[in-house]
Amino acid sequence: MKSFVVVVDVQGDFIHTDGALPVAGAETLIAPMTAWLSALRPEDTAGVLFTADTHLPDFYARSEEAKQFPPHCMRGTPGWALLLDPVAVDPAIPCYRLEKGVFDMWAEADIEIEPIGSGDVRVPREAFFAQLQRDGVQHVWVIGVAADFCVRWAIEGLVERGLKVTIPAALTRGIVRQIDTVAAEEWAREEVLVS
Fold first, then answer.
1. Which helix (H) or strand (E) holds 30?
2. Is the pTM of the predicted complex or chain greater than 0.90?
């Protein structure tokens, strides 16, 4: 049975030490993440979804996020760019992109998932994940930043939709809490495994 992969917000503003909102130690993730993605096998992997925190200056200034964090991941800036190249993934594995304007990839109702490198149409997020499950996907790997914010909410949404989740601890970093602490404090259940 195939698994799916979600790569959360591996963007310049979070990864680079001079980014707008750097996550400590995140720069060390790029090489191992690239190697991990390169090792995915088509027979085991239904697809890879890259999420991207995406803000517009005027809207961000009035958002709840602006009360807690400085401006970051402004569309079109170097800090918004994904630092992992989907080309690293075996071409037989489909790759997708999801842009979100808030921490939680599940919070906005009108989010769509876009195929990377193909002319296929965008699919509403809920329909996309429902189809994955109809196709037999029951497990999702999650990597990325930040463990205690966007990664955490991505995982919670996956579990709420009936999926089991594994997080390779070496492929995520948190701002205040690391993934093992988040898991111990938030998920005392079998559906989430930190490996």
1. helix 30-38
2. yes
